[in-house]
Fold this sequence. Notes:
Layout: H1 4-16, E1 30-34, E2 37-38, E3 52-61, E4 72-77, H2 88-94, H3 98-101, H4 107-120, E5 126-127, E6 130-131, E7 133-137, H5 141-153, E8 169-170, H6 171-179, H7 185-191, H8 203-221
Parallel strand pairs: 1-7, 7-8
Antiparallel strand pairs: 1-3, 2-3, 3-4, 5-6
Helix pairs in contact: 6-8
Amino acid sequence: AKSDESMEVSMESWLAQSEDQTKPDELYRYAVVLDFEATCWEAGQSTDSQEIIEFPAVIVDLAAPQNQPPIAEFHRYVLPTQNPLLSEFCTELTGITQDKIAGQMTIDAVLQEFAAWIGQQTYLTSTETGFNFVMCTDGNWDLGGVFPSEINRKQLNHLVPGYLRCGWCDIRKYFSEATGERGGMRKMLAYLRLPLQGRHHSGIDDSRNLARILKRVAAVWRNPVDVNQYPGRKVWKSS
């Protein structure tokens, strides 16, 4: 096992490279980073019963300097319909109160707003061979778990655009392949010497922090950001 001292030297050397790097040949020019928050309970939960209550997204230009902020953001709170009353545990974890979701749109309307917002970003393009942007999440829970589960239950598949179905970049996996380290968002930030900004488990704050992680690793590692996770064959059902 490496000593703490040798890991520190290695890490500082690794980060020092980021100041003078040529840009990687991008498979995707832009990244759309998502981090949903959903209903949850202290006794535990599964995606079969969870509903999205915060739908955030930030877009970053992977060819731009690391310190450039997101070029666009989308943020909506979502009204759950199966379990409309949030648990105390959920509010403590996410910071989302009952007042924040009261009167908000349901997931079908928010999903349509999100698709319209993506369409308004004229630099995001698609061709017969694919998109110039990639969806990015921390792990597989967002696009491989809670989102398709809720969409399938509520028979809203017809509202889901192709870029939310076809695969995504798991930032945690991307980070691990670059550094040899494993961990969630807090560990990735600490390893990269990036301070946590905002509140952990706030969807919009987590999306911004994950975008910072993605850009730091892309700049230092120099490999293009690519799709590294795909939905299983049983994830999406025809409606």
